[in-house]
Structure formats: C-alpha cells, structure tokens
Amino acid sequence: MRTSDDLAGLLRALRRRHARQQGDGELTYRELAARTGWSHTAIAEYLTGKTLPPTDRLDALVRLLGATPAEQGALATARDRVEESRRRTPRPTDRLVPRQLPADVASLAGRDDELALLDKLVAAPTAVVVAAISGTAGVGKTSLAVHWAHRVADQFDDGQLYVNLRGFDPRGQALTATKALHGFLDALGVPAARVPADLDAQAALYRSALARKRVLIVLDNARDAEQVRPLLPGTPTTVVLVTSRNQLTSLVSLDSAHPIPLGLLSRDAAGRLLTGRLGAERVAAEPEAAEAIIAACARLPLALSIAAARVQQSGFPLATLATELGTAGRRFGVLDAGDAVGEVRAVFSWSYTALTPPAAGLFRLLGLHPGPDITVAAAASLAGLPADGTRRSLTELTRANLLAEYRPGRFTAHDLLRAYAAELSDGTDPEPDRRAATTRLLDHYTHTTHAADALLRPHSDPVDHLITPPAAGVRPERPTTHAEAMAWLTAEHPVLLAALRQAAGAGFDAHTWRLGRALDTFLDRQGHWQDRVETCRSALLAAERLGDPVAQAVAHRFLAGAHTVVNRYADALGHLERALDLYVRAADAEGEARTHQNLASLWDRQGEPRKALEHSKRTLALAEAAGHRRAQADALNAVGWCHAQLGEHLAALAYCEQALALLQQLDDRAGEAATWDSLGFAHHHLGQYGRAVECYKRTLELTRDLGDLWGEADTLSRLGDTRHALGDPTSGRADWQRALDIFTALNHPDATAVRAKLQLP
C-alpha cells in the first residue's frame, strides 16, 4: 500500500464489513460525522483518498468501524508508510472523482412511495441494480431520479455519472451509446488513447473501469433498451437509474430492471406542489381557483410548475389563471414557459413524433373520443380498422406512455394529453374524416347498447324505425347473455353518458335518441336516476329536432318514467299527457296502451288506486283489441295490483294469475317478477303469509338476476312486513335493513318509509 487512495480503499472495505456484521446499511458520511464530531467534508475526503487522516483521527475512525486491535495497528503502520512515501516523492495530482449529477430540485411532492422503493432496491444488492423509471412527458421522471440520486450520493464513494441520452430531444438525434461511453470513460480517468473504436470493446472497458467501484449512474431520457444496454455495468457495487417515456419492457424482461411507473400526482400532492411554489397563504386565499388550476393541469407536475411560475411572475390572482386555463383553445398557450423544454405542447410532441404512422393516426383520433376510457373494440371502430392492428397501436401508445392501460383492456389518457390529441386531429385530419370517425364511434356505442338492452328487456317498445346499419368499419360488440349485457353496460356506463352528450352537442340527433332510449332499462334497474333523467331529456330534445312524432312520444313516456321513480309526479304527468296526445294523433294503439299503463303506475305511486285502475283497464282493452300479448300481460297484472290496493284481494289474485301464465309463456322475466310481487301482496292481505313469502322469494330471485336494485329493495320491504306478521320479527327486520341499505345507496326517498318500519318493536 503506497497511496492515500489505497488506504481509503481499506477504510471503505472496513465500513462495508462493519455494515454486514451489524446487519444494516453502511454508515453514511453524515452519520460518521455525527459520531466523530468531524465535518462531513473531512469524512468524505478520508474515505475517498483526497486527504490522509491524522494518526489520532485514523485510530478513532477504524475503532468506530469495528477494526480489531491487530487491524488498528496494521492500519496505523500503513498510514505512516503513506505519509513517509509522500515526503520522499512529490505528491501526484489527486484523481478527479466524477460528480456529474445536475442540481437537485427544490422540492419533490407526492413521490414518497417511489423514493421508498428505490431505497429498498439498493439496501442489499446482490447484482447490478437497475431501476427503470417510466412515465408520460412532464410527469417528473428526471426530477425523481436526480432528487433520489442526491439523497444517496454519499453512499457512492467513487462518484456519480449522469448523461442525458436525449431519447426524445427535438433538436437532434438521440445520443448514441458510443458517445455516452466516451463521456463516461473520460470521467472515470481512462485516457482517450486507450478507448477502442468498437462498441462492444468500449462497453467491456467501461465495465472494467467500474469494477469494484461504488458508483451511481443516471441514464436520463432513454429512448429504448437498445440505447441503454451497453451502458449497464457488471458489478453489484453500482446502481443504475434509467428514465424514459417508454416502458422499456425489454430492459425489464431481459436485464432484470425494476420497473417504477410514474403516474400523475394525487390531488393532495398536486396541492402541495402548488402550495410549495406559491405559498400556503396565497393558495388558501383562493381555494376554488387553486382546484380549477390543478384540474386544468391534469395533476401533471410540469404543467403545474409552469402555471405556478406564471402566477409568480405576473402577480395576477389565481382566478385569472384558472379562467385562462379553462378557456377553449388557450390552455396550451398558457402552459408555455418560453422554450421547448418548458412548453407542455412541445414536450408532448417529442413523444408523438416518435410514433409509427398507424399509432400516430390512432392517437389523433382518440382526441375525438369523449372519454374517460376506451376498449380495443371501440378504438377499432373509431379508426375503422381491424382489432388486431388497433391493439398493436394501443400497445405502442401505452409503451410510449401516451396511454395507460389502467385496467385489462381499458385504455385512458389524462386530460392534457386528450386535449393535445384533439388539437392534433383538428390541425391534421380533414373534417370529413373526423366526422366519419365520430360517426363510427357513436355507431359502435349505440348498436352495442341496443344489443345489450335487448337482452335486459327483450319485450320493450320496438324502435326499428330509427335503427340504421352501422357505418363501414364499425364492429359493434355482441353480448349474448343477460350477465354479459349487464357487465358491458356497467363497465361502459360513464363512457356511454359522455358519448350521448357528445352526440347531442355535435348534432347526431338519431344517435342521441337511440342511445338515450337504449340506456333507459339499465339506468333504471341500477338506480342511476339522475343520469336517466338527463339521457331521457336529451333523447326528447333530439326527437323534437328530428321531427319524428313516434320518437317524441316514446321519449316523453320514458322521461315521465324517470320523473316518476324519483317522485316528480307533476313533471311525469305532463310528459305522459303529451305522449298520449301524440299516440292518439298517430293512431298508434299499442303506444296509447303503454301510455295508459304508465299513467296507472303514476297514479298508483300517488296513492290513487281508483284512477290507476281506470287507466289499467283502458290499457287492457287497447292491448286485447290490438292483439298485443305482452301489453295485455302487463295490463292484467296492473289491474290485479289496483284491485289489491282497493282491498279486493280475490279479484287481484284472479287477474295476476292470468298475467303470470301469459308472462311465463312469453318468457318475460321482468314482467313475471312484478307479477309475483303483486301475488305476494294479495296473499299477505288474505292472511296467507306462507304463500306470500314464497311469492316474494320468487320475485327476489328474478329481480336480482335482472339487476333491478329498486325492485329488489321494494320487495324486501314487503317481505319484511309479511315475516313480521308471521311472528318472525327478527327475519322481518333483517329484510327491512337490507331494503334500507339498497334505498340509501340509491339515495331514493323510499328509504324514509323503511326507516320508519325499523323503529317498530
């Protein structure tokens, strides 16, 4: 041992052994400084060989690091030899330890989980640790990598290497692995004359130069795994951080890189970022404007930082910025810091320009989609392309972090990326092409919803007069069972509402009417009553614009049904009277019969059984005259129910049993469920409680199969009444409680009556 570098190497080895013996991480410079009372800088210089420690300090340091007495003596002797050698020989220039990290960020909000994961990865490495941080443009990948690198820099005595690989740099081509290696070898002190020309030989020399060294390497802004792979070292004493807009799947699968996907900030973290930039007092003074800014920036760190800087520099109120960000067409202009790196639109463009033409085309068209997410099938219809090719493009967009597959088969993008895609489409795709794509998309959702609704309510109103074949390239999905239909509608519920609003706003009136009509059964059974009112109202307005009286009549009836279920009886009555007038004018006996049935239901809910009976009998007469068996079956049940409400329970049984027989022939499970409920009510009031329980249980089986939440709760409430009358109050209260839970979840006013029942002894 001749130099201070040699002695420092022994001290570092001693520190590593001490960590292993203690079963803990190596003592950091800060920890050693705290235990010795020396400066952090002095500790660093002793352990990197820049300074030869004085004899007393060496003795104290090696004792702290667990050296045996014999080792202490040997190290003291070695230290004296180094000092004596320095007296005889001019001291060579100290080697330069690379410290290439860029400046640390002032603060990092909302990345505690990712920082903890990085800490865990390097705690006890047995091989080269490679962490691949990926995420969309502007999400803060470099900030996370650099911040963590600074936090652990003192654990890497032999330096930190950093290179911007410019994988998505608009100013030129990505940095080649050869150039990156030249820079690293130079930083490691390898003379240029020793660097071979061949890439593989350069990579081998680089690995040799890093052997047994504690070095942290940050490979920022990588384009793909091929660019990164030659820069990976071969010793477990090194740690590599890679950041990329791509997911670097190959690096994860073939090189055992640890994926660290970086998503948007949480709402709280976004608030902390804004507060950190602007101050708590300023944000607290305008909380609504702060929320609007966070929403407009889609919780994207880059966008939030630019917005905060704009407020700081202008001194304007937060409300002014919120208004600018919320103005159509101005958002990207506001989110511009004056150069390419600080402009959200430009940063997104670097990812977009790297796409293949099919993926780029699909990305633009996704700007036409109303959100919040899309499936492969819907994307294929939007593009008018086969599903296989569309899936490949979606995969490419996901790997580029322009989309996220947040659930299997469902893809989404944050609002700023969606706005960017829409802007691209507006400026690139001809208007006829955009209109055709929107038509295909609405065709996809309308036809699939219609197919699903036919499985939910196969005996509902015919609407064939407004059904047209889907456009070329559209491949609607085809659920084949009731369960498949419910699953599809449940998954697509928010998308379908957004599609209906899009259709209404863009003048697609036929789509608006058909989609609103086809959603009605699902929204009713699942208790989405405010959505139901909205969709029915949109359908009615569209039918009026179309000038189609039959469509208007149907829309009036369905909107009346939506109002009835939430107890808006006056509104419901007005729409039913208008529907009845339209049907009479059109000489549509079936429609007239259905409207009378709706009127019967309306009067029944208001506690007017005689008025309800009058309309039910009118329905029955019209249905029998028209030979419409489905309407006739419904009317028979309705007449029976009205008799039961009037206390005429034997007559009720007679009518309801006729209805049940006809409904079972028609395989109408929804009508059958309603009729079993009517029979249960009549049997209960005849004192035939056991038979009533049987009827209600059959109703519950059917309503649960149908996904009819309100119907299930309504029947549970009556079943509880019957069990209470049977002398089984425990079971009765359990039924009432289940009914109350459903009504409460649905936010339905019928919860009040059930809550009152639970107050009974």
From TrEMBL:
Pfam families documented for this protein: HTH_31, TPR_12
CDD domains (UniProt xref): HTH_XRE
Keyword presence, Ribosomal protein: no
Segments forming domain HTH cro/C1-type: 27-72
Signal sequence residues: none
SMART domains: HTH_XRE, TPR
Species for this entry: Micromonospora vinacea
Basic and acidic residues bias locations: 78-96
Lineage of the species this protein comes from: Bacteria, Bacillati, Actinomycetota, Actinomycetes, Micromonosporales
Region described as Disordered: spans on this chain: 75-96
Keywords per UniProt: TPR repeat
TPR repeat start-end pairs: 673-706
InterPro entries to which the protein is assigned, alphabetical: Cro/C1-type_HTH, Lambda_DNA-bd_dom_sf, P-loop_NTPase, TPR-like_helical_dom_sf, TPR_rpt
Protein name per UniProt: Tetratricopeptide (TPR) repeat protein/transcriptional regulator with XRE-family HTH domain
